[in-house]
Each structure stands twice: as C-alpha cells, then as structure tokens.
Specification:
This protein is of the alpha+beta class. It contains two helices and four strands, in the order βαββαβ. A hairpin with a 2-residue loop joins β2 and β3.
Length: about 140
C-alpha cells in the first residue's frame, strides 16, 4: 500500500486532550478503511503565518499512514467536514523517516549547516574599499 504523511490543523480554542482526540478519531478512520497508522505526533499549539477562520494559532497534528487511496480520501473528506479542523494536508511519500519528525526534534539535535557562523570577532571588513571623504555634503 502507498505511504502517506498528513498534517492537520485544528482550532485554537480546543484543549490539548480534544486535539489529541481528533488524532485518534482520524487514525480510526484510516484503520477502519483498510489502512494502518504507523506513527502519530501532536506538535502542540503553534502560531500560524496568517489567520485562518479568525484564528491566529492552531493545534498541529502529524500522522504517518500506510493506507489505500480510498482510506486517505475518506479521512480528508471527514476532516474537511469536521468543524474543529481548519486545514488538512496529505502527501504521498516513498518511505517514512525513522524516529521523530523534524518538528519534534530538539533544536540542538538538528544539523546547523550554513547557519553556524562561528566567532563573529574575526570578520574581515576589507571588502568595502575606500569610502572616501565622509563629510562631502557638509559645506
């Protein structure tokens, strides 16, 4: 069966228990339609980039599934009809990553890559060239 990853955003006025209940509900929809949930995560209440239905924040949930396309379509249909769910995104993937998702990893555990700037005291400012007379306009 194909592998999928789903992200759900629920309304901000839900409690954490209600948001986790939504995860269980949609996991049950997948399993009832012949699929299986291989992983689920509750990412918590996060600030969104823009308002959705007058909400600035939302409860984010993440599901990894191994399900037929019909089960995914039914889960998306029910999520769009559910009053508490604002957005749902489903993506078909080739393989599931092992361990927690990037959102659940500690910031220190992630590779910093280009963001690691090292010591800022050793900057070479020689690339600016000659700036000339600074008080040109003062006569």
């Amino acid at each position: 069966m194909p592998l999928y990853e789903h992200v759900l955003i629920a309304r901000q006025d839900l409690t954490n228990a209600q948001a986790e209940g939504l995860i269980e509900h949609f996991s049950a929809v997948i399993t009832d339609n012949g699929g299986s949930v291989t992983g689920q995560e509750y990412w918590g209440l996060k600030t969104m980039a823009y308002k959705i239905n007058k909400n600035r924040k939302g409860h984010y949930a993440f599901l990894r599934t191994d399900a037929p396309a019909g089960a995914v379509q039914e889960m998306e249909r029910l999520a769009r009809l559910h009053d508490d769910v604002m957005r749902v995104l489903s993506i078909r993937v080739d393989a599931h990553d092992e361990g927690p998702s990037v959102q659940m990893q500690k910031r220190d555990d992630r590779e910093r890559g280009d963001r690691d700037r090292g010591d800022r005291g050793d900057r070479d400012r020689g690339d600016r060239g000659d700036r000339g007379d600074r008080d040109r306009g003062r006569d």
